[in-house]
Amino acid sequence: MANVYGYIRVSSRDQNEDRQIIAIKEVGVTDRNIYLDKQSGKDFERPQYKKLLRKVKKDDLLYIKSIDRLGRNYEEILQQWRVITKDKGVDIVVLDMPLLDTRRGKDLMGTFLSDIVLQVLSFVAENERTNIRQRQAEGIAAAKAKGVKFGRPPLPLPKNFYEVHKAWRGKKITLKEAANACNMPIGTFYGKARKFENVDKTK
């Protein structure tokens, strides 16, 4: 008897899986047949996806929410589609794109049309990700040009910093002793000292 599965992939950085889970469950996939991977874009090692591929067999059915859940780029999406449909003999339904339902159009024309739609959508998915990254980079560059600071704000200097700095510059203590007195790594103390001195010179 054929089984029905669902596969969900989200980036641990900025995505929530709830939307995909709801959509997969609405078509009748049970919790034990839903496989979920979470990882960033640069780390695409997918243990649950590999487990799913070992589990599915010919004539099973796999639901995914959107085509880009299968891979991170055009070539990988097409490769994984072929692995599932051709090598494993499993049907795929892409919920966001009803045309991508391998249960329909099993004849030559249907397969041909499905392949064309798949290639177009795979390209669009990859192109959209590229555009998003470019817009993010442009937004960050524009914000920096306006003086917007990114990252954590610097910690305030310890209360004894100025006294310790004066003693260090007066050669009364070593750099290591000065850093220890301020509970800082040597490099951090030295960097703070140089920054303080440069600001002081401009006054």
Question: What is the number of independent domains?
Answer: 2
Structural classification: alpha/beta
Number of helices: 7
- What is the N-to-C order of secondary-structure elements (H for helix, E for strand)? EHEHEHEHHHH
Q: Total strand count, please?
A: 4
Distance between the termini: 81 Å
| Gyration radius, in Å | 28 Å
Superfamily (CATH H level) name of the largest domain: Resolvase, N-terminal catalytic domain
Second-tier CATH architecture of the largest domain: 3-Layer(aba) Sandwich
* Arithmetic mean of pLDDT: 82
Q: How would you characterize the largest beta sheet?
A: 4 strands, parallel
CATH class designation of the largest domain: Alpha Beta
Shape: elongated
Low-confidence stretches: none
The percent range for helix content is 40-55%
